Amino acid sequence: xxxxxxxxxxxxxxxxxxxxxxxxxxxxxxxxxxxxxxxxxxxxxxxxxxxxxxxxxxxxxxxxxxxxxxxxxxxxxxxxxxxxxxxxxxxxxxxxxxxxxxxxxxxxxxxxxxx
Length: 115
Hints:
- The chain has 115 residues and is of the alpha+beta class.
- It is built from three helices and five strands.
- The longest helix is centred in the last third of the chain and has 6 residues, at 86-91.
- The mean pLDDT is 89.
């Protein structure tokens, strides 16, 4: 049985790109479980006031985080990687060496919250 609620990559990406408006189905972040671990996809930085400048000079507007079993330095999540565009997010292999595009569409990926 399929647990994942997303039926296409476009369904996922359309919620996080473009002009933000909750009434338009846009969200700031997504909590999900993949292979027993909880992660968060977030727009902007979760813990810093300003977005990070990446080594290539672009501004990070997305981040992938792993939920800590216990708070680390007062934080619930540890940053895995940051990205300047959705294309980079989808190609990322920072979670178990698997492309994020495959993780977010995996039948067993459970969406546990959006805000």
